[in-house]
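Objective 1b: paired records.
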Amino acid sequence: QVQLVESGGGLVQAGGSLRLSCTASGSRLNSFKMGWYRQAPGKQRELVATITAGGITNYTDSVNGRFAISRADVLNMVFLQMNTLKPEDTAVYYCHARNIFRQSREYWGQGTQVTVSS
């Protein structure tokens, strides 16, 4: 069992930056593909970024070039650096982990609110 706890959300003006952190417990993260998802009010949860156990990253088009996902397995943490934030980035951001050996095993954090004011 993996527990994920996000932190770092908050209120920021458009053009500003935030850094989200995800701290894992219960298992080492080096066996997991990690990701950040977000869900805005009235919308479906969407993928923001992923990072494989080997460090390969992938981003949804709307954040490519503005956001950066990284991981520090020695700390059992994953990060999402968000720059040049826009009001449309406002959402609850969730950390996600999927076991690379047993892909049916996936875990979610409780989410952290990010609000970008115009």
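Objective 1b, second protein:
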Amino acid sequence: QVQLVESGGDLVQAGGSLRLSCACVASGTIFRNNYMAWYRQAPGKQRELVAGITAGGSTNYADSVKGRFTISRDNAKNTVYLQMSSLKPEDTATYYCYLRATAWSGYWGQGTQVTVSS
């Protein structure tokens, strides 16, 4: 069984920074062997990929966050992070952590709310 626990969401002013964390509670090597990602969903919008990181550390980002957000992982702590800077009101959303276990399935966290005020 895999549990993903996000934390770090908060209310912040535009231009500010936040760091989100996602701790993976699971036995074995499922965390270190798999792709991890952050998604977000704003009210009335579809969930979208924000950033991802492979087991080997390669990263990918949505165009809207490139240069502002950084994803990283600590395999010793079974944790993935999302460092967010230069935040904008349009970054307001619920942010979800995702572990891709197979090409067709994975695990989601419960989400953490990020609100950016103008």
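The chain has a mean pLDDT of 96. The two ends are 40 Å apart (CA to CA).
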